[in-house]
Specification:
By secondary structure, this protein is an alpha+beta fold. The chain is 44% helix and 26% strand. The chain has five helices and six strands, in the order αββββαβαβαα.
Length: 116
């Protein structure tokens, strides 16, 4: 997984746009659901529920780790790009996006998913 792969997947989600926050690339669907390049270029971050974070960190500790501090306790999760495959990154990014997407965006996404 490269930064370009992470970016492509994030921007493929309905309503997702690229912006920046505190000098870091972020992806938003109204609110931030992922960032790229923090703490360095080897990582992406996905904003998950604490329960989802615990599941991913337990299942794939080489790919995922909680962000240190309070943000990590709330579900902010680092994704090691080099260790992650596209399917796993897509699942994590989609879960993060679902946490911030509007009901209208969720409806569009779920309708497209049902049609495929």
């Amino acid at each position: 997984m490269t930064q370009d792969d992470f970016r492509r997947i994030a921007l493929s989600l309905p309503g997702a746009v690229e912006s920046s926050h505190m000098g870091t690339v972020d992806f938003r669907a109204g609110r931030i659901f992922a960032t790229l390049g923090y703490p360095d270029a080897a990582f992406g971050m996905v904003k998950l529920t604490p329960e989802r974070q615990e599941m991913l960190v337990s299942a794939e500790p080489a790919m995922f780790e909680p962000v240190k501090g309070g943000w990590g306790a709330k579900g902010a999760t680092l994704l090691r790009l080099a260790a992650c495959d596209e399917a796993t990154a897509t699942g994590a990014l989609t879960a993060a996006w679902r946490g911030v997407a509007s009901k209208a965006l969720l409806k569009v996404f779920d309708a497209a998913d049902e049609a495929s």
